[in-house]
Amino acid sequence: MIEKNQLKKEGLVFGRALQRAYKLAFLYSPDHPAAEEPIQTSYGMLTAIMKKSPQFTFGFFNQRILLNDPLTPDTTLDSLANEFMKRGIMGVMFSLGLTVRDYRRGLSIISTKPEIIEGAGGTTLYLRKNPIEGMRVMATDKRDSHKGDTTLGMDIDSFMTAQSLMDPKAIAHSVNFGMFMQGSGLKTPQGFQGAPGEMLALAELATQEAFLNPETDPKETVQALARVLNDLSPDYLLSSMPAERQEAYKGLPASEVAYALAEDVAIQWAKRRFGTAEGADGIRVAQDDVVQILGRALRTTQVAERLLQKINVLVDRKELPVEVHDRIRHEMEWAGLTPEEQHSRLMQLTEFSEQAFRHFIEYVKQTGKDGLLEKTTEVAGHFF
């Protein structure tokens, strides 16, 4: 963690570099040669800060500079503060992993002419239509002025969430909700009001459908759900959950809530599917179905150990056979292989189980998308 005085010093230096880059991005464009050096310089300073503070927030609040939690006055940044105010922007939260490409695009978004933002429906709607990976932009919240250094009185993520929540009744008409429903292939239930219980039931149903439908990409559905939860609040669904379940989700960011929920949906489906299996053949088929769905969940959430822990609980309760755990371990190993290693593994096979055939289908789809037709044909020839 970075010490507050150091954060203040480095944050203000970054702010001045950002102000210069912002000015040139607005006068020309972020892709203009004149803006290249200032953008690279400010991005380098930002990256250095995020190595010590993985999430760094810069903005303006009550006529002071917002640097994560600390607020401090500095008149040298009045020009940038004025530009933010014209566009209804309060601040930006930068996350570690932000690429220079997305940083450049983010500058383009926040330096858009005010009249264009207004014509797009205002700052909040404009920002929701133009999300930036690694940058979260917050619309202005007007407060009484206050001089001198102070703090927000809460962590910055909670503060930003509180300032940007969407009315639950309006969520059904939002861009992110529309993308979520479109990706799941479901229709919005008649009379849907966006209440926590309704939203939770819809989120679980949509995620389950995404796992069960081989033509959909569950990851896209879960990412869309994360954006919806970000509009509402990461904790929005908690009130409709039992107390013991709330503890597992409490305090998580929207993306983690969405991924954890997706895992739970897959686990509960697996429990139900195996619980209804009858006879040796029925149990064998159920095991294959369960491994397939849990494997998709594994590739969607990419948090293998957490998913395996949840599977272990069901195994300990005798609600899933230990073979499922072992096969998911195999799926985890497969998911960790490079395309070249997957190709080699498939070409070495002499016996073709259902799980191996599923890996083959996944590999063919991916190499087909990547245009690697020679490798696709070679593996297909080995199987057939």
Short summary:
The chain has 384 residues and is an alpha+beta fold. The protein has 3 domains: 4-164, no CATH class; 169-336, no CATH class; 339-384, no CATH class.
Written overview of the protein:
By secondary structure, the chain is an alpha+beta fold. It has three domains: 4-164, no CATH class; 169-336, no CATH class; 339-384, no CATH class. Helix content is 63%, strand content 7%. The chain contains 18 helices and six strands. It has helices spanning 4-27, 33-52, 78-86, 100-110, 114-119, 123-129, 156-164, 175-184, 196-212, 218-232, 243-249, 254-275, 279-301, 304-316, 322-335, 339-347, 354-369, 373-383, and strands at 55-61, 64-67, 70-72, 89-95, 135-139, 150-151. The protein has a six-stranded antiparallel β-sheet, with helices on both faces. Strand 1 and strand 2 (64-67) form a beta hairpin.
